[in-house]
Structures are given as structure tokens and as C-alpha cells.
Amino acid sequence: YGGVESVFGPAGRGQAYLFFDAGWVRTTSDDAGMTVVEENRLTGFGLGVRAPTALGSIDLSLGFADELTFDEGKLHVALIQAF
Questions:
Q1: Judging by beta carbons within 10 Å of its beta carbon (0-12, 13-18, 19+), is residue 48 exposed, middle or buried?
Q2: Which pTM does this prediction carry?
Q3: How many other C-beta atoms lie within 10 A of the C-beta of residue 46?
Q4: Higher-scoring residue by pLDDT: 80, 63
Q5: Which of 24, 51, 57, 83 has the most beta carbons within 10 angstroms of its beta carbon?
């Protein structure tokens, strides 16, 4: 569906952010000649930091799906190049 992000700090320097994402996924499979369709609503939330570098922006975020348990949390690292 989409997402919302709140960013704290000036654009040209390091920033912290909070995010919330919501979506929908549909999977299909064939089992013994019958098509099985499964639909799920997915949500996620988390926090992160973003820092500008000579190569582009580096993001480090920690995201959670549906509930706040560190066993289920996912760490994401991203390098976003500027052209």
C-alpha cells in the first residue's frame, strides 16, 4: 500500500528516521491440480540513521514486522549512490 517516514535532522548531514510500511502480498501454488491462492496483509515499522558520504548516502535501519521482538527484527544496510 505504501509507507510513512519521519526524518529528524538537516538534509545535508546525518539524520535519524522512523518508518511505518504497509503492504499486501498474494501467492499462488498448484497442488494436485488445484490452484491455491493465499493473500496476506503485511506491516512493518522501525528506525534508522542516514549519513552522507562521498559515495552517496549510507542507511542503517532496524525493522520489525507486526510486533517488537528482537528475534524477529531485521537489520538493513543500504548505500544509495547519487548520479
A1: buried
A2: 0.69
A3: 19
A4: 63
A5: 57
Q: Looking at residue 72, what DSSP letter applies?
A: T
Query: What is the spatial distance between Cα 47 and Cα 43, in angstroms, rounded to a whole number?
Result: 14
For CA atoms 67, 68, 70, 74, give the dihedral sign. positive
pLDDT at 81 over 70: no
Cell reading at 78: 543500504
Beta-carbon contacts of residue 53 (< 8 Å; ≥ 6 apart): none
What is the pLDDT at residue 19? 94
Contacts of 34 (CB under 8 A, 6+ apart): none
- Between the CA atoms of 65, 47, 3 and 82, what dihedral angle is there, to the nearest 10 degrees? -130
Helix (H) or strand (E) segment spanning residue 40: strand 34-53
Amino acid symbol at 23: G
